[in-house]
Amino acid sequence: GQQLNQSPQSMFIQEGEDVSMNCTSSSIFNTWLWYKQDPGEGPVLLIALYKAGELTSNGRLTAQFGITRKDSFLNISASIPSDVGIYFCAGQANFGNEKLTFGTGTRLTIIP
Amino acid sequence: DAGITQSPRHKVTETGTPVTLRCHQTENHRYMYWYRQDPGHGLRLIHYSYGVKDTDKGEVSDGYSVSRSKTEDFLLTLESATSSQTSVYFCAISEVQSGINTGELFFGEGSRLTVL
After folding, report:
1. Residues of A numbered 24-83 whose beta carbons fall under 8 angstroms of chain B's beta carbons: which are they?
2. DSSP state of B74
3. Residue A92 near chain B (CB below 8 Å)
4. B54-109 pLDDT, tens digit each
5. Which residues from B are below 8 Å from A90, CB to CB?
6. What letter would DSSP give residue A53?
7. pLDDT, tens digit, 9 for 90 and up, residues A24-63
8. Is the alpha carbon torsion for A54, A109, A23, B110 positive or negative?
C-alpha cells in the first residue's frame, strides 16, 4: 500500500522558534492534509491542500502542496506552548477517494 | 464540532472475549471510519462505511468486523480479542462537498482498549 514518510519523528525546540516538518511519498497524492493531535484527544484538521504548488496559511501555520505531488510541508512560526502535540500528514490519492493514508507523525516538544 | 461520540472510552478485556466499540454521529454524515493508533504506526484504517449497510475494508481489517444499520451508528467488533488488538481506536467522519468526499476527517475522542 501507499506509505507516507514523515520527518522528523520528533522535535525539541524552545518557545518562539520556528518549526518545519515534511511528508514525502513514493506515489502521487492529489490532496494533502495536516492534522494535530493533543494528548488524549483525536486528531484535529489544521490545513487541507488541493492543488499542486498551493500554499495555505492558518494563523501561524503554513502548509505547502509540493509541485511533484509527492510531498508536503508544514511550518509553524513563533512557536508557543499550545503547539505541543503530534502532527500528522495525510494524503488522498484521488479527490473523492474514501481513503486517506497517514504519516507516522512528528512529535513536537517545547523546552522551557 | 462534528458531533461524534465514541463508547466506551476505556475498556479492559481478556483474550478471546468479544468486544464492540460504538461510534455515534449526530449530523447525518455519509462516510464513517474506524482507525487504530499505535506507537510508530500512526493511524491505520480498519474499516469504513459509505452508507447504511455499505462498508469496505481498510489496510488492517483482519480480526475486525463492522456494521452500519443506521446512518448515525457505526459499530466495530472484535469477535475474539487478542493482545495485538490493544490500541486506541478512533472513529471519524468525512466532509462531503457537492457529493464528493473531500478527505477532511473529523475524529472522535478515541476508545482505549486493553486486551490482557
Report:
1. 31, 33, 35, 40-45, 48
2. E
3. yes
4. 999 999 999 999 999 999 999 999 999 999 999 999 999 998 888 778 888 999 99
5. 43, 103, 105
6. T
7. 999 899 999 999 999 889 999 999 999 999 999 999 999 9
8. negative
